[in-house]
Amino acid sequence: MDVDVDAVASELYGLVPAEFTAARNSHVARAREAGDGEAARRIAGLRKPTLGAWASTLLVRHRPEETERLLHLGHALREAHRTLDGARLRELGHRQHAVLAALARQASDLAAEAGQPVGDGVVREIEEILRTVLTDEQVAGQWATGVLERAPAASVGFIGLEPEPTAVPTPPKPGGTTARKDRPQALEQEEGEKEEQERKEREKEEREKQRKEAVAAARRRAERAARELRKAEEARDGAGRRLAQAEDRLADLERRRREAERSRDQAREDAEAAARRAGEAERAATAAREALERLAGSG
Predict the structure, then answer these.
(1) From residue 259, how far is each of 194, 255, 263 by CA, in Å?
(2) pLDDT tens digits, 219-243
(3) Residue 113, CB-side half-sphere exposure with 13 Å CA sphere
(4) Residue ranges covered by each domain of the chain
(5) Is the pTM of this model over 0.85?
(6) CA-wise closest residue to 157 among 201, 87, 93, 66
């Protein structure tokens, strides 16, 4: 029976990344047992997703309505770019910032619910993935399958889209917040420069925030390393003291062993001398007894 590799991939990329490799290897083994070597090869080629890629696809699996709205927003943005609808682009562009931030937070919450909390860096990666989903139709299609290995290359502008040859920039509609009737070109340029400056300021603030977070993280790591060093030094000093005490005890035991050996040797010598004296005394006593008996017998 042929193995459905797409179904296997969908299952694997829905797992917490820590469970991915073991589950993939199990599917490879089952495909081989089923005699489907090609499926086994393709499944073995699947790579564990990054936390950001995995968390972003949780939206596809658990937030289908929000996913559909994001895909529609991307389609509308790309269509406005294709038709040079400036007013529509500005309207949708302002909306996308709030949408991306909200969806990135939702993805972070879903990851935590799945038992895999993610940090601020991963949340930013999720937001970049979703931004690329808006601008790149191919990435949007891949992401919508729920199977994404890693964050796609960050896009600048709209990928693969050039304005239609017959497209003419759409004049702003009168009325409403986007109306620009009879607005001088210089004023529009000034507003564009202002928006660009604001964007740069936001990016600068974000970079500064990231720098401060990195400094704080580095400081925490340095403090943790200093604590570990102090503990290691204390353990080293304690072990040194115990070693010195053990060596002192060993030297004392060695000294007492030598003294005991000398006492043993001396006792052996004393015992041998005493045995010799006892033998001599016994022989003398025997001789004296024999002499006494002879004298008594002769009388």
Answers:
(1) 96, 6, 6
(2) 888 788 778 888 878 888 778 788 8
(3) 10
(4) 5-44
(5) no
(6) 93
